[in-house]
Amino acid sequence: MPAPDQRDKPLERYLSVLELLAPQPDGLTPGELERALDLPKATMNRIIHVLLDSGLIAGSTGRARAYRLGPRILRLLTGAHDLSWLERITERPLQDLAGATGQSAFVACLFGAEVRSVNCVAPDTTVRFHIVPGTGMPPHASATAKSILAFAPPEVLEAALAVERTAFTPRTITGRARLDEELAQVRARGYSIEHGEHVLGLASVARPIPGAQGEVRFAVGLTGPEGSIVGPQMERNLAALATARDQLAKVLSLPMP
User: Fold this and answer.
1) Which residue among 33, 65, 82, 219 has the highest number of C-beta atoms inside a 10 angstrom radius?
2) How many Cβ atoms sit within 10 Å of the Cβ of residue 166?
3) H or E element: which one contains 53?
4) pLDDT tens-digit profile of 129-151?
5) Predicted TM-score (pTM) of this structure
6) Which contacts qualify for 9-15: CB closer than 8 Å, 24 or more apart?
7) Which of 8-17, 87-96, 215-224 has the lowest mean pLDDT?
């Protein structure tokens, strides 16, 4: 993981542009890149000119005034058409979140009626928790799943909760009426909590990430020991999650490959 003072170095900015362009066959416009990376127009123009001159990007044939990966970088890249693109574009906000809280930060996504993790960054500490990308998140015992399903269309929610709701611990909520109450609380307060419902001694908090049209397909969460997640650090964790949610909303609202 790059040190915090390394992430705003020029090379990191160039790499961030390439990571955003990698899954976009029709490219992105300078304006879209500026908004996603929070960079001034002049800075983005300078980066684009350097990348064009080096052959790392090229003008898009599919969108006017847009840029895509160039032939030079395409010879080096592999796997640009699988879900690894989600890991690439969510990495930096998750690094910032893990660094700010000292807890494991992760993003989950709705695939059909199933919520699965897509990326996780663990802090540089002695004890670290890692959620492997692709892991299914229990719809009734996961903070990120609750954050997403609270805003899901009725048919998606019904399909997600139709699976057997295993009681992982004595705290696991399995009754439908109680789950509906929990999801209503998520909608009202803007975040979800999982307090020893999946694994005793561990807890998670998560915030939904709104899409361009207000839809919710993603959520960002923190997980770790109960005392570090829902204890005295709760308000700090929620504030850091709000910042990460806003950062992730910018990159996840870009056109999807």
Assistant:
1) 219
2) 12
3) helix 41-53
4) 788 888 999 999 999 999 999 99
5) 0.72
6) 13/37, 13/39, 13/43, 13/47, 14/47, 14/50, 14/51, 14/56
7) 8-17
